[in-house]
């Protein structure tokens, strides 16, 4: 079983099956709208914003990548807390930008080092909350201070927001001129294979991202399924997210009983510091349990990241861990 990528382990949303069967074939012969008009309308309704506030991309990866290219020139600094989502420094390098990691604050909350991030002078600061891979969240006070004092754009990646208790920062995207919040259909909505993500921000920010994005980033099928999920499957998504969170905390109890101390998490995963994580990860894989291995994470050291979903999967992971530790 694969617990390595923080996707929805309960599967894909119910309306996807109907849309693919009833509409999928008919849609194949025609182009989608260049800038995803149907998807934008559905996102705007779901997020409570105007269509002008919405951009979309081939996964939120693409929205992040386009934002880096929209707001930065080769050689510019992009700052981000460390550790965080590994694709950000990778995208930065691909666009000849300078990635500058700023360690999360020491201590159990792992909040943002606001002064450290501001001191980089970056024209774009990336913040992921809940943060991948730690699962920890940025405090509202720290994030608002960062947004108020940043010299440029603050991109807030909320790929895991559906699992938080009140850690939603869409309000900042609605009210601040320099905030772009990115979200995805890949995690709680169970549609990682579709490659659909979106961003919300002031119309002028969104327009810049769209210029870097270019047209035709979605397939007709991807757009149709994402629209139906956002329109019809929100209760299903919320039920899956609630169960993933409940099982995350149950898993935490089981890990503690093994002498491990996972970080506090508001995502659908737990980061568990474990010495010799590579060896442990390989031994788990031999038992058909695939988790994500991290070595030497700043402030954490070696760790395993375990995606959370149905309890039988969590229980099998615990059993395998008990055998290999
Ligand atoms: N942001 C974070 C924090 C993620 O963990 C991921 C996926 N691993 C993404 C963005 C990208 O997701 P997608 O491109 O599937 O929307």
TrEMBL record:
Domain of life, per lineage: Bacteria
Known catalytic reactions: L-histidinol phosphate + 2-oxoglutarate = 3-(imidazol-4-yl)-2-oxopropyl phosphate + L-glutamate
Aminotransferase class I/classII large domain mapped to chain residues: 1-308
Enzyme Commission code(s) on record: 2.6.1.9
Cofactor(s) required, per the database record: pyridoxal 5'-phosphate
Keywords annotated in UniProt: Amino-acid biosynthesis, Aminotransferase, Histidine biosynthesis, Pyridoxal phosphate, Transferase
Pathway participation: Amino-acid biosynthesis; L-histidine biosynthesis; L-histidine from 5-phospho-alpha-D-ribose 1-diphosphate: step 7/9
Pfam families (alphabetical): Aminotran_1_2 (PF00155)
Keyword Zinc-finger listed: no
Family per record: Belongs to the class-II pyridoxal-phosphate-dependent aminotransferase family. Histidinol-phosphate aminotransferase subfamily.
Protein name: histidinol-phosphate transaminase
